[in-house]
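To fix ideas, we quote verbatim a fold written out as tokens:
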Amino acid sequence: MRIPIPAVALAAFFMPAAALSQIPAAAVCGDRSRFLSHLAQTHKETPSAMGVTDSGRVLEVLTSKDGTWTIIVTHPNGITCMVTAGQAWENIEPAAEGPVT
């Protein structure tokens, strides 16, 4: 079971004080490598999917074998923010698209 860490504490850990004033109070943002290291060490989560949004942000899904997951987004300016996290992640096999010819 994941124990949520207060957003303010995580924000202070991940982001320099000068940059905190530019991000909404509820956001947890910082250096991508620190997010990856923290999530790997505390939850054994690793990147499992990623994509680029129309606005140029890189969205990543990190998952663990235990079913925990986190979604992070890296902005064009290099700042990474946690979007959400949860439990019970399942990979779904693509559905068959019809008979093979």
